[in-house]
Every structure is written in C-alpha cells, then in structure tokens.
UniProtKB/TrEMBL annotation:
Superkingdom of the source species: Bacteria
Organism lineage: Bacteria, Pseudomonadati, Planctomycetota, Planctomycetia, Planctomycetales
Keyword Secreted: no
Role played: Involved in chemotaxis. Part of a chemotaxis signal transduction system that modulates chemotaxis in response to various stimuli. Catalyzes the demethylation of specific methylglutamate residues introduced into the chemoreceptors (methyl-accepting chemotaxis proteins or MCP) by CheR. Also mediates the irreversible deamidation of specific glutamine residues to glutamic acid.
Location in the cell: Cytoplasm
Annotated ranges, domain CheB-type methylesterase: 157-343
InterPro entries, alphabetized: CheB-like, CheB_C, CheY-like_superfamily, Sig_transdc_resp-reg_Me-estase, Sig_transdc_resp-reg_receiver
Record flagged with keyword rRNA-binding: no
Reactions performed catalytically: L-glutaminyl-[protein] + H2O = L-glutamyl-[protein] + NH4(+); [protein]-L-glutamate 5-O-methyl ester + H2O = L-glutamyl-[protein] + methanol + H(+)
Position of the signal peptide: none
Protein name as it appears in the record: Protein-glutamate methylesterase/protein-glutamine glutaminase
C-alpha cells in the first residue's frame, strides 16, 4: 500500500484554501493534513502533524510566507515547500526570494476565473510538482560516474575548460545561489545558465544571483559577447545558444519550439556549447524535474566535454541529473556542496 503524501495548505484566503484542497483531492495518494491561515499557524500545525509538502502563500497576516519559509525548512528539513504567488511584478520578486531561500517550486495563485477553471489551472501546475516531490529518495542510490575519479584528481589529464554551462529546474534557484556563492571571486570563466522559469522571473533571478556570486550576472541578449568572469542567464521564453561571430563567442536567443515542454530548454545551450567548445566545455546538471538536457549532454559527451551531475541526496528532484547518471553520461556525481570545488579544480587543469 502506498503511503499518502501529506500536504499542508497555508493561505489567508478561505476561497484559495478551498480551491487548493479541491485541486489536490483529484490527485491519488495525496492526503490533506490540514490548512492554516498564516505562517505561525502553519508552524504550530506542523508541530502537531508533520507534512511532506507545504503549499505556502507569501502575503499573509501575523507571519508572512518569506518569514515562515526558513523557519519551516530549519524545523522540518524533510518537508518541501511550494510557494503560491501572484502574477504581478511584486509577486514575482517575492517568489524569486522564496525560491532562493529554499522553496522547491512555485505555482500561480488561482485567478478570479470560474471555480472549475481555477481548480483546473491549479491542478495543472500543482499536481505534477507534488508528484515529483513525493518520489522517495533511495537510501543508498547507485550513482556510477562515467570515468570514476575522486574530486581530488578531477583536473588531471583534462583540458582546461573555457566555459561552464549549467542546467537546472525544480529547486534550481536555491542550488544556483549556493553553488555560485561558493565559487571564489578569482574564478574567471564565463558561466551560462538555463533555469526553467517564466519571463517575469528571470531578470529578478539574475539580479539575485549577481548579489550571491559577487560577479556580473545578467539575462543573455542576442549577439552579446561572452566575457570572462560574467554569468549569463537564459531569459524566460527564449532558448539560449552560443555561436561564433567573427573572432568572438556570443550568446544568441531564439523562440524555436519548446523541448521537453520547456523554453528555455537546457538542450539547445548544451548542444551549441558542445559544438563550439568541444573538450573545453564543462557541463553541470543540477536538481530538476524531467529529463531536459539529456540529449544536449549526449552531445557534450560525444565531443569529449566534462559532465558533473548533482547527486540524489542533495537534489530537490533527481530528474534531470538522474537521467544523466542512468545513461552513464556523468564524469562525476557530487553533492551540491562539492560541485564548486570540482569546477574550480577543473579550471586549473593544463
């Protein structure tokens, strides 16, 4: 018998709580463990009855979501938090903050549409996320790297990379914040990132990552030069690729069809970077739902690039990095806290 996934719903609106409950009731093996009107009530509820997932509003009286979120994660580290946000600029800004603080994902709050439409809209966004987050983690996952090597020897016999490309999705903003903050200021390779995120959110994420990494971070532009020491983030709704124009490498954007239902997708970035950089490419796959990036990583491997995948234990969802491991594409499978060190060590290779 499958153990139900317990979900706590936290929102000051009784209407929204009701819509979320009805949407989740359509999902098999999900149990509503309770509801709460604000963050303080949620913490009290979790003390009495733990939940696997918390759906958390941001703007609430008594204790708002941004205050409650880190307290929930500290007190209940196994609990995953999904934030519900409005579609306004202010809502996007607070949502990006919540994701960087450790929220596993976000959904748009129900609109003023009909009840049926609102339930359908919430279910379409929320249920896949709940299903992905409730997948059990293996106690001792078998994670075999393509070229077994300890981190201490990762840079030996390798070409020094000229660029780092990173792909991520669910849980990515927090993982990116931690990873980039751990890379020392003297590291000067350009870093290009695809994070699955809508257009309203990506400029805010770029600004947040610039603060955490202490280096320039911006949304990539079409035809913009790739400069050393800079970070480039794929804008929402655009695929990011790299190309050579004249004697310099540039970023390019397009709105070709989504891949794996994603635009931006990791695949176009990894494929184009593999084409131009070959063995001097370092590709990193962080936490994320689905298998976006698998085909792109196959191209990286075929052109002798180096691949690091985040391990299952530190991933919010081990979909994207797990796909690489299952297909034998990862040179190293590392916990998040060791990836920055591996990147730096590879950058010192000769």
């Amino acid at each position: 018998m499958v153990t139900p996934t317990r979900v706590l719903i936290v929102d000051d609106s009784a209407v929204v709580r009701g819509l979320l409950v009805r949407a989740l009731q359509t999902c098999p093996d999900v149990e509503i463990s309770g509801t709460a009107m604000h963050g303080e009530a949620a913490l009290n509820q979790l003390q009495r009855q733990p939940a696997d997932i918390v759906v958390l509003d941001i703007e609430m009286p008594v204790m708002d979501g941004l205050t409650a979120l880190p307290r929930i994660l500290r007190a209940f580290p196994q609990t995953r938090v999904i934030v519900a946000s409005s579609s306004t600029y202010e809502g996007a800004e607070t949502t990006v903050k919540a994701l960087a603080l450790g929220a596993a994902g976000c959904i748009a709050k129900p609109s003023k549409a009909s009840v049926t439409d609102s339930i359908q809209h919430v279910a379409t966004e929320l249920l896949p996320l709940v299903q992905a987050l409730r997948l059990p983690k293996a106690a001792s996952p078998e994670q075999k790297p393509r070229e077994p090597a300890a981190c201490v020897s990762a840079g030996r016999g390798r070409s020094r990379p000229d660029v780092v490309v990173i792909g991520t999705s669910t849980g990515g903003p927090n993982a990116l914040s931690k990873l980039l903050a751990a890379i020392p200021a003297e590291f000067d390779l350009p870093i290009l990132i695809v994070q699955h995120m809508p257009p309203l959110f990506t400029p805010l994420l770029a600004r947040h990552l610039a603060q955490d990494s202490r280096r320039p971070c911006q949304e990539a532009i079409d035809g913009g030069p790739i400069e050393r020491g800079h970070i480039y983030l794929a804008p929402g709704d655009y695929h990011l690729t790299v190309n050579k124009r004249g004697n310099r490498m540039v970023t390019e954007l397009n709105q070709n069809s989504p891949e794996h239902f994603c635009r931006p997708s990791v695949n176009p970035l990894f494929r184009s970077a593999a084409e131009w950089y070959g063995p001097r490419l370092l590709a990193v796959m962080l936490t994320g739902m689905g298998e976006d990036g698998l085909e792109g990583t196959q191209e990286v491997v075929s052109r002798k690039g180096y691949v690091i995948a985040q391990d299952e234990a530190t991933s919010v969802v081990w979909g994207m990095p797990g796909a690489l491991v299952r297909h034998g594409l990862a040179n190293e499978v590392l916990p998040l806290e060791r990836i920055a060190g591996a990147i730096c060590q590879l950058s010192l290779a000769r």
